[in-house]
Structure formats: C-alpha cells, structure tokens
Amino acid sequence: MPGAWSASGLLRRLGLFHTLTAADAITGYKGMGTIGYEGSGPVRWCVDIIHRSGIHRPKRNLIEALTDAEFGLPVSRADHLDAFYPPETLENWIRLDDEARTGLIEFRFTACDYEQLQLSTCGPECQAIAKTVERRVRTAAQRLGSF
C-alpha cells in the first residue's frame, strides 16, 4: 500500500516521542482522505500526542528530528494544505507529507487535566488510571529536567 512506509518509519522512531516530548499518551490511527489532494489522497496517519496541562510541547524538536536529512523520514511540512486548513485555526496540529504525496502524517498535540479525570464520575477505574499516569509522567518529567 502506498504510504505504508510512513507508519513503519514512525514506529522505528518511537524513541523520539519518549525523548523529545513529555507525552502522557500517544495514540494513532489511519484516517480518511483529506481536502488538498487528488482523489482520496495519500495514506493519512493521525497521531495524537496527549500531555498534561502546563507542560511545554516541544513540537519543533520532534519535527526537526522526523525531517532530519540523514536519520529522519523523507517528509517535510505540508504547507500546501494551509490554503484549506489555516495554521491559526490548527495551532496544535502539524502535518508532514512526502514529495510524491503518498503519505500524510498529522500530529495533534492535546492537553489533558488529570485532576479533573480523578474527580470524574467514571468511577474508581478512571481515578486509578489518572493517578498512575500522573505518577509516571512526573517521573519522566523529572528525568527530562535532569538533561
């Protein structure tokens, strides 16, 4: 499948998400086509990077690593989509695609307030998950701060 290389390449660079972002969770899925490409467009991979409120999102470092000429993927910013999706309306989104436009990777950076999750009405399961995630993120953030 054209564009499958982009998901494979992202998986091989999974360590970047641990070292360059203070992400609490990263999820992804194959999305539908998008405006700005012919036909159904390229294979579109959507990656949601979720972090705690107040945590700096080093988007620039992640994108620089993923577009590095030697170690990155053969992608660059999909600035041609700005006409359809104005950057000011998608300030927490970054889109990358390849020159042949066979693969489109969307990164969405989302903040989550775990204190609210702990107080939610979804029961003790949500509260336990929130406490575990918060503890792990605090530990990871301390490690990142020591570099």
Strand-helix topology:
Layout: H1 4-12, H2 15-20, E1 25-31, E2 43-52, H3 59-66, E3 76-77, E4 93-97, E5 103-112, H4 114-118, H5 124-145
Parallel strand pairs: 2-5
Antiparallel strand pairs: 1-2, 3-4, 4-5
Describe this structure in words.
With 147 residues, the chain is of the alpha+beta class. The chain is 34% helix and 23% strand. It has a five-stranded mixed beta sheet. The chain is globular, with a radius of gyration of 17 Å. It starts with a helix and ends with a helix. The relative contact order is 0.19. The model has no long low-confidence stretch (mean pLDDT 79).
Assembly state (oligomeric): single chain
Radius of gyration: 17 Å
Helix count, DSSP H or I runs of 4 or more residues: 5
Helix content: 25-40%
SSE series: HHEEHEEEHH
Give the strand order of the largest sheet, numbering strands 1, 2, ... along the chain: 1-2-5-4-3
- Coarse shape: globular
- Sketch the major β-sheet: 5 strands, mixed
Distance between the termini: 40 Å
Summed over residues and divided by their number, the pLDDT gives a mean of: 79
Beta strand count: 5
Beta percentage is: 15-25%
Structural class: alpha+beta
pLDDT under 50 segments (min length 5)?
none
Give descriptors for this structure.
alpha+beta; 34% helix; 147 residues; globular; 5 helices
In short:
This protein is of the alpha+beta class.
